[in-house]
Fold these 3 entries.
Entry 1:
Amino acid sequence: MPGFCSSSDSYLDSGKIMLAVRVCAIDVGTNSVRGLVAEVNEHGQVRVLHREGNITRLGEGLSQTGVLDEQAIERTARAVEKIAAKARSLNAARYGVIATSAARNASNSGKLKDRIRELTSLETEVITGQEEARYVCEGVLRSLELAGETALLADIGGGSTELVFAPRAGREPLLTFVEIGCVGITELFLHHDPPREEELSRAIEHATRLLRNAASELPAGANELIGLGGTITTIPAILLRMAKYDGSRVHNFVLTREHVESVLHRLASMGLEKRKNVVGLERGRADIIVGGIVAIKALLAATGFQKLRVSDRGILVGVALSLWRREG
């Protein structure tokens, strides 16, 4: 299975030099905007040149209003502009901007697309949950050698969670999603700082029920659970006390139920200002991290797994590969 490479700007195969296609993939999520500039060779091998993430909270207040806030649109569009400018400085030839849960659930997502176009001349595609899950699946499968024959992939975002049953090589993955994520859980259930026990209990019960229903739509028998998304990658960063995030140490980290329980108990007992100073926790994520860990706890309960393996690669790699396959 092709994986991530760290070679020079060209790739060698039996002495033949093959030029790579340089692409820029941008993911506009409910909580953050993330970008990837990479080179992809003719075998679909990906070499990362630049990664960037900015918390813009596009989905702030969406569950109450049904619309994207004007200031959130501006923050988000500016973040896309910043990533696109960096990609242009690195001579990216193909660009793809996707928008996920918040944009597809908002009645005014056209304003977001218009503003991104004004600032960058790039078109934004608001993708469905199924399309999002397909990108996630390809991105993860390209970056992990799976230990078992099958795996269940879970991408917990700000507004939705994608579940993908990834069977043995050569078979079609099965996809589903549920509209539950760290921002939604926080806004719907966690109204006090720090959250009250009854709020946490209701949130866990609600998320577990939704995730169990979603998981029941997929085949049983996955050998392992693989998790990705900002909340999931944050927990290893906290456990390892990372003052500066290091994806190479997070990728393949095994999170146990005990890890999740201990970090949830620690962070849920703190007020927001104290959480902002936790080493390994991005300050802009401090107000929704408890809701995100609730989703992870619910995921383990709903699927019956005792642990999950963390992937630091996902939807952006999937988008990069789709750009590589695009004509011209």
Entry 2:
Amino acid sequence: MNKKFILAIPISLVFISILTLFSSLSKSNVKNNNPNVILIMVDDLRPEINCYNKTIIKSPNIDNLASDSYLYENAVCNYPVCGASRASMLTGLRPNKNRFKTFKSRIDVDAPSVETIGSWFKNNGYYTLSFGKISHHKNDSPKSWSEPAWRAEKKWRDYQTDENIKLANQNNGVGNAFEIGLNLRDNYADQKMVDRIMKDLVNFKKSNKPFLLSVGFLKPHLPFNAPLKYWDLYEKKDIQLAKNRFQPENTPKIAMHHYAELRKYLNIPNDKSVEIPDSIQLKLIHGYYACISFVDDQIGRLVSKLKELDLYNDAIIVFVGDHGWQLGEHNLWAKHCNFQTSLKVPLLIKYPNQTETKKIKSVVELVDIFPTLCDISNLDYPKHLQGKSLTSVNKKDNSNTIGFSTYKKGTTITTSNYSYTKWQNDNNELIGQMLFDLKRDKDENISIAIDSTYKQLINSFSISIDSINEVSL
């Protein structure tokens, strides 16, 4: 057992807090060099793209962006559901028992007095804009934006085929879980959003203010709707079922769920005791891939326009998923759990005039994005931030960093070597735990929490979780 590693976990929490504090205090006046910022958020995207070594995926435009960016190989969300994750990221505050607990979370309800990325940049001279799904609710925290937030979709499931539109009209907005887009009534919302942004970019360039442009893609969120040509990018032989369709050994019942989000759709068995047929599982995986390629194409259009207007090189560009997604692993679908499939996200950050990829192995969190953007944009930090700036992580990439994620009663600590989760009841009593060795068992198939060899490590992780939960209150 590596005793140095065990002792470093709690100490690193203190170090990170001190580093964040002194970084904040050491900044003085806002400098004149404030680059444009483009924040691209993709809904339900796990690191299932080519630049993360997922070779089946067709994502050339995201891969090209990655070639100019810092690529964070071990980024985790702080809460694996969209509303809470986005609210946490946009405020730089960790979720806790009083805020950011559900998909319906609102910043202006849970943390109304806190500055967001948008409002902080606006207060510091930026023109700030929100297009598509940035906050879960379009009208959340309106103080963040210089103009009202804009979305293209009239109905968020965004069906465009006659079959699904008819089904949705008959079933309270719900149709099938995927749509092979042929003979569409209209373009999908993500394409219409990029159409609108490409027109507005001309005016943004003329402005005498730097801008922060937030771009939120709906896909690959359910339902998996994409034009036929993106489905046709993948052959049936390339679509494989998950290899670990079972509950991991030695894990508690509370670790699992019955993917209620997916079961709402009409072509999915709604009885939680009924398994989804393999043929439907393959179609869902195919649809997820098609949606990624569709979004990739839209990002390519956006980046091409930025380059045409000479706005790309000097800009900061962040590309991030709000949380992961299960595609049948552990016999789970959707998010809503404490496995790495729900917690890991893609994160790319392109600095101004960056021209090469730099891969970072350190574990980082979505709450780190706010202070990082402040650093690169030469802005002071607001006092409430609970993350760390990744500018320091980039310089000293190491294996001793940690990330924290929460889902309901469970909190997970992720390190380069392990993931540990403990669940507690309302009296803070332990009701379940699991530990995975990510070097030997990257797919988290066998929990080793019952092995007494790891008792000291588990105790250290448990103390760190208690510490971070206290700090985040």
Entry 3:
Amino acid sequence: MSFAGIEPVDFSSSLTESRFSGLLTKISNFLAEQAIESYVVGGLVRDVLLGRDTADIDIAVAADALEIAPGVATALGGKYVTLDRVNRIGRVVLLNKATPSTEAQWELDFSTFEGSIEQDLARRDFTIDAMAVDLSQLRETFSNVQLIDPFHGRDDLRRGVIRAVAETAFESDAARLLRAARLAAELNFTIDKPTEALIRRHSYLVASVAGERVREELLRLLAIPEAGRLLLYLDELGLLTALFPELTASKGTEQPREHFWNVFDHSLMTVMAVDFLLRRGAWEYAGGEVLAAVPWSAVLAEHFAQEVSHGSRRSILLKLAGLLHDVAKPQTKAIDAGGRLRFLGHATEGAIITANILERLRFSAKEVKLIETVVKHHLRPGQMSQDELPSRRAIYRYFRDTAEAGIDTLFLSLADHLATRGPNLDLAAWQKHTRIVAYVIGQHFEPADIARPARLVDGHDIINIFSITPGPKIGEILEAVREAQASGEVTSREAALSFIDKLLT
């Protein structure tokens, strides 16, 4: 194959005025001193041409990247991470000092190429990522830079199209199946028909992708506003159930008549409802009065923006919980004596299945615990009270059992409600539900937090004062005291001691 497609482009307006120029010049100087041929490739070139900001820089080097990248990390005061020993890819992580947030960082991925840069680009995923700029040029100028574009990626950028470089793109790396959909959503592009056909043909390969890579792509997919619609598209491409085979049985599984959708569709709608509740998307089945009834504040916004592990936030993980919260319904489906369809125990069994899925995809222990807890207790908010606001004791027990997932579980219960009723939503019932959620959240954020009452007595007090032998009974007594505090029955140390005395007699 002969390669064409070298044209001049002007990077100066984007790079010189941004924080790229100094960093790329330093890297170029370092590599030039060692006479290493190097190119800026992929996402950075694409994003500069689109006028988008990015913190991810891919650099292809005509040398062993696993030997070069550690030296770059040392020279620039960064951290080195090996990404792929087989394909010789290493990452350098640098603190991005030009960004006010101390959390901001650069991720410089160094890859190894052999032969020509055009041959390297031919092995890449999509045409819009198969463009390169000789890094040595950027030591001198950022205007009139020669763009290497053998597959007309710049034309596809103008057209807003995701197009595979070669028919073997997904066989070479199945993680690209997810990346195609994610890029299309992030850039508001469309995947061209031949590439869509390739994705459908090779969708089964996504099950072979390493869990760590699936997790990274999945988190980036779910971070996109209105991610539920993107999950629906993944299903149309054959990717969703290939990724989560546990969801297959929920397709077509009917539900009681109050449900507008079957289990599978309800799960996707729950993700859409989460985005709506978190002010990240629309809900076409209701007007503004529905969202107006939902509690919201700067404190709640900050809560859902919290990072749980690298790359994940509570808002993202809540969407994943929404997708999986009814995963056990097909296997727990039964008809009771009154002829009613029931799914007894589906929340508990679903939590176990969910944990197994997340562990398979290499989610962190913190992420697994949070989502597992939300799934296990997603019915609890609706069980806390009937016609009145929940008692202090009920609120205490709820947060005792849900711990760090309490607020998240409350919001999933609201999303579950919307995705159950759909266009048949009863506004009065909805406002009752939101009033309960708002009350529970308000009690949780009160200075005297019901969920964490002040310690009035401890185990030593119980052993010394009541001559109780150390053992599990000590914990049971302390829990009873905390619950009595939460309900307002016990308000002082003296009252706590009196309560214990009565408990033991």
